[in-house]
Specification:
- The chain is of the alpha/beta class.
- It has two domains: about 210 residues, Alpha-Beta Barrel (TIM Barrel); about 60 residues, no CATH class.
- Strands 1-9-8-6-5-4-3-2 form an eight-stranded parallel β-sheet. Strands 7-11-10 form a three-stranded antiparallel β-sheet, covered by helices on one side.
- β3, α4 and β4 form a beta-alpha-beta unit.
- α2 runs parallel beside α3 and α3 runs parallel beside α4.
- It is globular.
- Bound molecules: ligand TUI.
Length: about 325
């Protein structure tokens, strides 16, 4: 057992969150993670309010354990999604890709535990002051939209800056990363990439195959020019995007247009040419498809072994 402030706060067996991956993290995946004892998270990103309500109800058909909904703050549906979360009495909400202060009062007053994903100390301190229950400190090793700081440096700085528990994210995909995160001051971890290849994850088989095949240098960051850098696998799409953004003759509008729909094409169609296969740097550690339960158990067993033998370094 690894027992931390996060497992206690949320009443879960493992202090391990499944990232709220846009287009990927549906009721089936979140339910599997929560039923296995972690925190499953439904991505609100690609849904309007009513679609999210249906997804929450679907999860509840198979799961009565704590779960969360992630609100991607850049989503055009963020405001209605924020209301549905209150109406459906979702126990935990995580946010990403922005500042969640607009919605925090509404959520905390409804008794919802708010756990924003932050990429800086400044935002962590701001949300802690406004009643966040914890923060996810996400480093740039993560897949998808990332900040500038990396996990090794970000997590301890956030942990020393706030009094609430910190969950580490970015670059963690095995028990070594889990143990290291706890040593950096985290009380839990969040993983996206490792759950991409979970048996209960319904992404296209091409996506899973690419993650399983990926090595340490398989990802690329593009989109900096548009103000939202995104890490994804090196594919014809992401390489072309990186080239186009260097070209002054291409306008921001053209770039945006080129990127629109690319993640959905990867997740639903496995489109190897036009798809954006968002993925973290830790993909090189992900070598087999497992159930969510197997992932949580293996992560815990590995971390326990490392943590219990760590005293050997001290003479
Ligand atoms: O949000 C994520 N990861 C995501 S969102 C996403 S969907 C998307 N698709 C195309 C383009 C852009 C997004 C795919 N992956 N992770 C949480 C996260 N939040 N990472 C970084 C941040 C972040 C960055 C800056 C949070 C706050 C912030 O500044 C807020 C402010 O205004 O101070």
């Amino acid at each position: 057992m690894i027992n931390t402030k996060i497992s206690q706060l949320l009443g879960i067996e493992y202090p391990i969150f499944q990232g709220g991956m846009a287009w990927v993290a549906d009721a089936a995946l979140a339910s599997a993670v929560s039923n296995a004892g972690g925190l499953g998270i439904i991505a609100g990103m690609n849904m309007n309010g009513e679609q999210l309500r249906a997804e929450i109800r679907k999860l509840r058909e198979t799961c009565d354990k704590p779960f969360a909904v992630n609100v991607m703050l850049m989503s055009p549906h963020a405001a209605e999604v924020a209301d549905v979360i209150v109406e459906e009495k979702v126990p935990v909400v995580t946010t990403g890709a922005g500042n969640p202060l607009t919605y925090m009062k509404k959520w905390t007053e409804a008794g919802i535990k708010v756990i924003p994903v932050v990429a800086s100390v400044a935002l962590a301190q701001m949300v802690a002051k406004r009643g966040a229950a914890a923060v996810v400190a996400e480093g740039g090793e993560s897949g998808g939209h990332i900040g500038e700081a990396n996990t090794m440096a970000l997590v301890p700085q956030v942990a020393q800056a706030v009094d609430i528990p910190v969950i580490a994210a970015g670059g963690i995909a095995d028990g070594r990363g889990y143990a290291a995160a706890l040593m950096l001051g985290a009380e839990g971890i969040q993983m996206g990439t490792r759950f991409l290849v979970a048996k209960e994850c319904n992404i296209h088989p091409n996506y899973k195959a690419k993650v399983l095949k990926a090595g340490d240098t398989a990802t690329i960051v593009s989109g900096r020019r548009l103000g939202h850098p995104v890490r994804s696998l090196k594919t014809p799409f992401s390489r072309k995007f990186a080239e186009l953004e260097k070209d002054p003759a291409i306008s921001d509008e053209q770039l945006n247009e080129y990127g629109t729909g690319a993640l959905r094409k990867a997740v639903s169609e496995g489109d190897e040419v036009n798809g954006a296969f968002m993925c973290g740097e830790a993909a090189g550690l992900v070598k087999c498809e497992q159930t969510c339960k197997e992932i949580l158990e293996e992560m815990t067993a590995q971390a326990e072994k490392i943590l219990s033998s760590a005293g050997r370094f001290i003479v």
